[in-house]
Specification:
The chain has 256 residues and is an alpha/beta fold. It is 34% helix and 25% strand. It has nine helices and 14 strands. The chain has a six-stranded mixed beta sheet with strand order 1-2-3-4-5-6, covered by helices on one side. Strands 7-8-9-10-13-14 form a six-stranded mixed beta sheet. The protein has a two-stranded antiparallel sheet with strand order 11-12. It binds zinc ion. Zinc ion binds next to loops.
Length: 256
Amino acid sequence: MDSVITIPALGDNLMYLVRCGRNDSFVVDPSDASLVSMILKKQGLSLKAILLTHHHWDHTAGASELKRRTGCEVIAGDGGRSRDVDKAVENGQILTMGNAKIQVLATPGHTRASVCYYMQPSNDGRGGFLWTGDTLFVGGCGRIFECDPGTMWESLLKLASLPDDALVYCGHDYTLENYEFALSIEPDNEVVKRRLDEVKQAQRRGEQTVPSNISQEKATNPFLRAGAPELKAALGMADAPAVEVFAELRRRKDVF
Ligand SMILES: [Zn+2]
């Protein structure tokens, strides 16, 4: 069995159930307790923890109920604002979940307390896996609600510095729209054109477009490419610092 089970919920949200031992598991951003419970039962898994990337209801709505049903621990970034949170975590902290080691990465921007979780590669060849919530999407990034663009940019750079092969599991499937936006900025970018084609084909076959990996995001995600000369030129901002290019991209995406 694959160690990560992707569970679509609420239309375009993605929840992730992760096996971290023979019968143990944790879940990332459970918005639907019934759906998670059903899959736990089907897979014969016991739930040890809920990892929340941020406090928005579409990432947390199932946490109370799951905690009540299973007695699991609820983990979130410091200041995560949910009364269900048992453990507030900080940047750099390592969580041990069964046989998995998970590093907490503070990534403020979408919300002040947003965190991402990086499951480090293990001896049995698993990992690294990165859960990004609404900070980094395949081909895009989250809206900036509680911080300034510079803060979000620093958070994205932190994620981009992870190993190239780390798989990116984000909180929503916005992949198609994100690549359409990328192509609206750089209509002649062949790599992005190819990616958009691949995504359309995958969706026609009913396949998921998540996960991606860090290497692919660095090559095709316009928000991670804000420092690239071609992208700066496409925006008419050849001499601007990357953070200003990033802020302009985010402004344009907000009204795309
Ligand atoms: Zn959110």
